[in-house]
Specification:
The chain is built from 20 helices and 18 strands. The protein is about 50% helix and about 20% strand.
Length: about 625
Amino acid sequence: MLRLSNISLARGARVLYQQVSLSAAPGERIGLIGANGCGKSSLFSAVLGQLSLEAGTIEAPRPERIAHVAQDIDATSSTALEYVLEGHAPLSLARAALARAETGHDDLELAHAHAHLAEINPGAVTAQALTVMRGLGFAPGAAQQPMQSFSGGWRNRLALARALLRPADLLLLDEPTNHLDLDSVVWLEAWLRRQSATVLLISHDREFLDRCVNTIWHVEGGAIRRYAGDYSAFEIALIERNRQQDAQARSYKRTAAHLQQFVDRFRAQATKARQAQSRLKMLQRLVEVEPSRAQHEWRFEFLAPRALPERLIDGAGLTLGYGDKAVLRDVRVVVEAGDRIGILGVNGAGKSTLVKAITGFLAPMRGELRRASGAAIGYFAQHQLDQLEGDESPLAQLRRLAPQAREQELRDFLGTYRFSGDMATAPVGRMSGGEKARCALALIAWQRPNLLVLDEPTNHLDMETREALTVALSSYEGALLLVSHDRHLLRAATDQLWLVHDGLLSSFDGDLDQYTALVLASRRERGDAQSPDADRDPMRDAGRRREERRQQAQERDRQAQVRRPLQQRLQKIERELEAGAAELREIDRRLADPGFYHAGDTAEVAGLLKQRALLSEKVERLEAQWLHGQEELDRVS
């Protein structure tokens, strides 16, 4: 379990959050979300003891019972399997104890070391390690390859496998889906759902969060708030919370205005001074409620293509590969104007090989792949960020593409991608991964392609930028080929799917939910002894989600039914108050007119004064009724 007690955390002079108290129950799966730089990774560092708290305490399991993904991975000569097994703390400790016993001369100690190692069962642990590696996309022979032979992305997968293998009470995962293909993401979701450990997970993948977590911790405004349910439930709850906060802010404003109006009207009258003083004290006791901060949605766009040829890409009988090794055979590919295609398949199946051939970075081994004479391809590769000029600014790199354009025009364009002011002239090499990705997308968009080919564009993007990319692609007028493990993006931006599998390219007629079920069924058929989703029923899960949505809708309807008569009664009181206040102003105007008294009709003067007293009492009663009704409305939840 994990307990935060009144913690305050800072990075340098910047306070991230203060007086935060939260607890995580055993087995709870928590999504930790918030804007970039709000302190999510810093909380992980604090839990691990790598960052000191300004105040408060953190109760967490012992360090050997906490699993997390290492940030620095040594490319040693040890094999991938050995590296993963080293993450299993009990096995590593038992092996170390056996090694010490073998160098000593105590037969009893040696016997105990052998017995302890046998109890842990290294064979079973090794089998589990191979299962985890296979789930994360490693081929069977990869386990015996040296760490040095793997690229950075595959080393990150090994670090994740090492963390998943570790017996732990608390599992900390920071963006675990980066560098994973969709098949591995599906496997990881299933694995996490069956974990008995408490899981604290940072992710910008909304569908991954929906499938993995049952609680959200939201970091915002120097605080961390807990929400029950998955990410979709959090979004609904946050909208409702902001709506209620805005309603309370309006209520405070109305109440304060009514009280202040009474005080201002009667402060100077001796007969009303006590009541005015009472209203003033009520006004001072009111707790001011600020309206929720307006969420300014950030948007960018891909400029309209200059031309839209009807058929952009055409090829048949293609063999694609490297050197003498064919990766894809008998490929038939046609991309027409307006096509919006998502490409599915495991890592290593040939997705990147296919898009490299389509974009012209890889020549077919056999067959001809034709591109329309007017085809303009914008290509975002998995390693696109490495191709940016690190010592140059976004403005300098855009100016190279448009030497004739005015600088202000270039700056205005970069501003839509959040490169304003000094950011536009800062070296790209010092920027974060997300900022580099935005720069690469801006450079592509400026060239107005009529075919966008995006290979895992979301790896470094936060939730807000992913949503902006989703909207931009949805309104893009050209053709789109998209490789991504972000199912929300695939659902929103594509309307047909291609599947790369067993060296072939084919159309996939199902949807992403059917593909997910296919992936899990395929893993079970391959005999994954520890298949983490063997007892999962997709139809049952879909039914459960529908039931949850139905219950949430019923609760919203119930609240609306309770609030409606209260709101109607308040509106009626407000109308009567406005009418009474207007009538009082008219009476006061007449009473303030000297000519009214000079007329000599004392009965009319007395009658008007009596009318004013009765009306004043009525307004006071209405104000009290309004305050009581507003309190009732605020209590409705």
